[in-house]
Amino acid sequence: MTDVTRLSAAELAEALRKRELSSVDATRAHLDRIAAVEESVHAFLHVSGDDALATAQDVDARRAAGEEVHPLAGVPIAVKDVIVTKGMPSTAGSKILEGWIPPYDATLVERIRAAGLPILGKTNMDEFAMGSSTEHSAYGNTHNPWDLDRIPGGSGGGSAAAVAAYEAPLAIGTDTGGSIRQPGAVTGTVGVKPTYGSVSRYGLIALASSLDQAGPVTRTVLDSALLHELIGGHDPRDSTSIADPLPNLVESARRGATGDLSGVRVGVVTELQGEGYQPGVLARFQESLALLEKAGAELVEVSCPHFPYALAAYYLILPAEASSNLAKFDGMRFGLRVEPEDGPVTAERVMAATRGAGFGDEVKRRIILGTYALSAGYYDAYYGSAQKVRTLIQRDFAGAFAQADVLVSPTAPTTAFKLGEKLDDPLAMYLNDVATIPANLAGVPGMSVPNGLSDDGLPVGFQILAPAKADDRLYRVGAALEGALQAQWGGPLLAQAPELV
Amino acid sequence: MSVQGTALVDYADAVKRYDPVLGIEVHVELGTRTKMFDAAEASFGAEPNSQTTPVSLGLPGALPVVNGKAVEYAIRIGLALNCEIAEYCRFARKNYFYPDVPKNFQTSQYDEPIAYDGWVDVELEDGTVFRVEIERAHMEEDAGKNTHVGGATGRIHGAEYSLVDYNRAGIPLVEIVTRPIEGAGERAPEVARAYVQTLRDIFRALDVSEARMERGNVRADVNVSLRPTPESPLGTRTETKNVNSFRSVERAVRYEISRQAAVLDAGATVVQETRHFHEDTGSTSSGRVKSDAEDYRYFPEPDLVPLTPSREWVEEIRASLPELPAARRRRLQGEWGYADAEMRDVVNAGALDLIEATVAGGASPAAARKWWMGELARYAKQTETALTEVAITPAQIAQLQSLVDSGRINDKLARQVLEGVLAGEGDPEQVVTARGLEIVSDDGALLAAVDEALAAQPDVVEKVRAGNQGPVGAIIGAVMKATKGQADAKRVRELVLERIGS
């Protein structure tokens, strides 16, 4: 039999269903792969081998007993460390949560466990999901499997790298401004940010509550659809959760895979190309547009005139919400507690010492920004104005979706840059998310599909955006593009990645 | 200590020369089963930190969900205070670091309260009605409770360490904020007290809270400022926090008026600050100076969706409001035919519910008032108990009165029966039986006593026979004495006259 770690989740699930393979063997194969490549990739902060094998064993037993199990039962998964997992460390990439073992599971983790997916471990990320390179993790860099000297994207570089390096067939990411899609683009993997409110945020350690959304990180569009359907849907514990049932995502992915996109209007966003985008990125984008057209889609040029202001608005709204969301990390109830080196040990001084020692520079930078943006006398000029821009961007989307069923753009302006290259230039780092941020501000869903290699031999991503609650459109268009591209390449893009061992 | 400290101007003198303005914030803990944003139980007195969930502990990843019952209660309060109910309002985060606030922000409402622009009429002890305007009533969550250990006073200063109980964290609160209360003059302390008491009574009538002051279910922050005349601009105010009894509200206002008058007399300015009230001395002391006005960085709570109570729901709640205390008092006074002064005494004595129940038990309103405001009020005073704590029920009083009304006992016997009930000898019927207190109207038993009395006072008998009925009372008195008061006095009189006339 072929190396099971190379199978997609759908293929693995099929093999498990037919009992050609046991979940224990599949899980062990991935744990072995993790053991083999982690030293070079460092995608995981915590590997929970025993737990994963116990789950696998249980699923195998249930299957053997003829029990009806979830289609993904027994397929291993990795979870971004910003999602709380009962009994398993959950640090969000921060020293301030070192050693904290949550007493509860996030809703999406409950669903994963209930479906019998062995959780391999927790993946690395920029501290509290602040960053685009995973270099802001307090626990060291994750390396891009395509080039170990390069960043895997961020904040969810760990989940993307784990999937790209065949350490896991499935992973959970979270996307506040592109943290699922941009790592997907630079590692040659598929990443989906669902409609805001369609996957429960209960148990997601909040960065910016109005922007955060968890979603699937996989190697194929179909795998994302399978995982999305598992974790999505209404949750009464999240007030912002949408009550409507999810659209049929797996069916849409299968439909898209037939290669027929006739009747689909694809809007090309004028403002999300051109200056600042690498030539190789733009070239692959144009080629992909041609493939969509060939599949029967109608291409239309659409303008979203306020998108150029999205980044600025985002960097006021996000820090403002983050400054409040991160206030709870104070050494009083959980996680790190640092007492002041001298002087009285008062609560206020312990809070200050803990936060001073526990947070990294990027986190402190954004807390300071956000605190300032919310201050009396500045609120209207900063937070207030940013909210107005947000409304304008939502209107841009509404206008664009009146002309097109989906919108498309390159996912990220560049391929993976070198580790350390932008670490001292936060603004350059922020620009990585210029194309992904508008979707978060408007709450609409987005997907990144690998669409080739740039001139530097590194992967680039194609972004598809759909109206809120129409995530199914992402899967149809994404699967069609994926099929057309793989037909050209003669297999998945990741097959072109260098061997790690 | 500076003039801001303890110098006081005599109260009467202070209110002659200064016009006090009040602003009162009342927090009421709602009696919902669960917390404001959380499924944790909200009951009182449980083991510390046993009534918590990831939400009320503010654990990473936890999210709030609004308690619909709490919203309903808040609307009830708003309607009872004649407020408008918002068609759309949001929660906001009030950001500040303190260990009893688990998220280091309190989820509250800022510029979009659920209820606003209302009023409530407050009745003072002498019957004067004072209208207090309500600016807003908004929802928020309570903080946990800190216990400072190792210090001399239980205060944080000098404590070795502090403990936090998060059971209270997240309990739903409604905060009711008045507009400036002007024109109360020297009666400002009384108005403040009556206002808080009125709200407490309304909370109870609405059944939205147990509203027990001693448990902190109702807490008041009292703002006081002085100005030279009612025409002058408002003076600088102080805010005395967490005043937890009606009497303390009155005392705190009174003290601040005297203190601020002394500050102003000395030519100094009142410092805008938070002050603490001390029950033992009746004084306030400086807390936090608010001049560097704390910036709470309010912004709309992104984890919650806006509240949009439908007009149908609001009207449904309005229709289901119970009768409020003031309306009830008016109705009962009409039904009972009490004079204004009588009614006021009854209310002030806390006897309204007792009398209502006694009347419901069959007694006449006049008789019920006579018992509770007479014999029992005296007894309560002697034994230093509250009228409601006296060991007799309205039903027992009603029974006692029915024994009198049916002629089975007279007033004098009734007092003995009451004594028996209070002594725990059972219901009035049982006491009458056990003590043998029933009136004797059986002629056979009475005649012997009558004849004996007549025989003992032949001179009186002569006078009566001669046509002078006056002295007959002496005979009757002797009979009553001989029968220990249990004889039916009316029948005795008839028998005496019959015997003498025969």
TrEMBL record, chain A:
Q: Which HAMAP family match?
A: GatA
Which reactions appear under catalytic activity for this entry?
A: L-glutamyl-tRNA(Gln) + L-glutamine + ATP + H2O = L-glutaminyl-tRNA(Gln) + L-glutamate + ADP + phosphate + H(+)
Q: Sorted alphabetically, which keywords does the UniProt record give?
A: ATP-binding, Ligase, Nucleotide-binding, Protein biosynthesis, Transferase
Described purpose of this protein according to its UniProt entry: Allows the formation of correctly charged Gln-tRNA(Gln) through the transamidation of misacylated Glu-tRNA(Gln) in organisms which lack glutaminyl-tRNA synthetase. The reaction takes place in the presence of glutamine and ATP through an activated gamma-phospho-Glu-tRNA(Gln).
SUPFAM superfamilies linked: Amidase signature (AS) enzymes
What enzyme category does the UniProt record give? Answer: ligase
Subunit and interaction comment: Heterotrimer of A, B and C subunits.
Q: What is its EC number?
A: 6.3.5.7
Family assignment from sequence similarity: Belongs to the amidase family. GatA subfamily.
Amidase domain location, by residue?
Answer: 25-474
Q: Which InterPro entries match?
A: Amidase, Amidase_CS, Amidase_dom, AS_sf, GatA
Domain of life assignment = Bacteria
Tell me the Gene Ontology biological-process terms attached to this UniProt entry: translation
Q: Where is the active site?
A: 80, 155, 179
Question: Could you name the Gene Ontology cellular component terms for this entry?
Answer: glutamyl-tRNA(Gln) amidotransferase complex
Under the heading Pfam families, the entry gives: Amidase
Protein name from the UniProt record: Glutamyl-tRNA(Gln) amidotransferase subunit A
Q: Its Gene Ontology molecular function terms? A: ATP binding; glutaminyl-tRNA synthase (glutamine-hydrolyzing) activity; transferase activity
UniProtKB/TrEMBL annotation, chain B:
Task: Spell out the PANTHER family in the cross-references.
Answer: GLUTAMYL-TRNA GLN AMIDOTRANSFERASE SUBUNIT B MITOCHONDRIAL AND PROKARYOTIC PET112-RELATED (PTHR11659), GLUTAMYL-TRNA(GLN) AMIDOTRANSFERASE SUBUNIT B, MITOCHONDRIAL (PTHR11659:SF0)
Please list the GO terms describing molecular function. Answer: asparaginyl-tRNA synthase (glutamine-hydrolyzing) activity; ATP binding; glutaminyl-tRNA synthase (glutamine-hydrolyzing) activity; transferase activity
Return the InterPro entries for the record. Answer: Asn/Gln-tRNA_amidoTrfase_suB/E, Asn/Gln-tRNA_Trfase_suB/E_cat, Asn/Gln_amidotransferase, Asn/Gln_tRNA_amidoTrase-B-like, GatB, GatB_Yqey_C_2, Gln-tRNA_amidoTrfase_suB_CS, Gln_synth/guanido_kin_cat_dom
State the protein's name: Aspartyl/glutamyl-tRNA(Asn/Gln) amidotransferase subunit B
| Species of provenance | Xylanimonas oleitrophica
Q: Which SMART domains match?
A: GatB_Yqey
The record, for Gene3D superfamilies, names:
1.10.10.410
Example of a GO biological process term: glutaminyl-tRNAGln biosynthesis via transamidation
Residue ranges of the Asn/Gln amidotransferase domain?
353-500
